[in-house]
Write a structure and sequence with these properties.
The protein has 141 residues and is mostly helical. Helix 2 crosses helix 3, helix 4 crosses helix 6 and helix 6 runs antiparallel to helix 7. It starts with a helix and ends with a helix.
Amino acid sequence: MNNEDVGKARDENITHEDDVLRIMKMRIIDSYRWKVDIIEPFSKEFGITEDEFKEILIKRLDMASLEALHARYESSKHYCIKEKIHADLKLCWLSDVMNVLTDEQTEKIKNKLAKEVLIQGKSYDEAIEDGRKDLLEYLMR
């Protein structure tokens, strides 16, 4: 076996390992929960196909990250919805800028609405509308 053959064998081995790794990553990404929770919403958000978004994940994430990502996604839902509530109810202005609400009051509002959406199944829009009414009522006292 000459040096040229050794290089080809090494390249073929790397290609085979890459193919196996890709298959393993696709098994994770193609699971139902991944599809519903991550692939569909993010591809829609970016205006790309699901396959294009899968390629992004395969390219950018290693196996350990892929295996842990869905759990991180689940645990981040509460935080992310609270941040959205913070912005949608303009709590940044009421609390951070005008100081009409304390940080504790703001957290209580966000936690209450996040619980209604994530645990009780209330629609986000309905929770925000009810939260806005409750907030106005509180501010008018």
